[in-house]
Design a protein that fits this description.
Length: about 100
């Protein structure tokens, strides 16, 4: 826990966004048709209507009609389709 506080203070002092320095996921939703997920770790499950995405702080579940994954990079992922729902599973930090 102390380590995160130090990193957070350094980020603030250097004016670096926390999502960059602490690998916190950032979701940007456009018109319920597209979700940009920044700072993700990997894809856990992928089906025609559902995707589970691992992040550094938990799992993002997205239910989508006509799902397509686009513009995948090491850090960013775009999910397209008619977004039905998004929910989160947090991971308990054991530090």
């Amino acid at each position: 826990m102390r380590r995160k506080n130090v990193k957070s203070r350094i980020s603030k002092a250097l004016e670096v966004p926390e999502e960059v320095s602490l690998k916190v996921p950032k979701l940007t939703i456009l018109k319920f048709e597209q979700v940009l997920i920044e700072n993700y770790k990997g894809i856990l499950e992928y089906q025609d209507f559902f995707v589970r995405i691992q992040t550094y702080i938990g799992i993002i579940n997205i239910n989508v009609y006509q799902l397509s994954l686009e513009e995948m990079t090491i850090d960013d992922l775009i999910v397209k389709g008619k977004i039905e729902s998004i929910d989160f599973e947090s991971v308990v930090d054991e530090e």
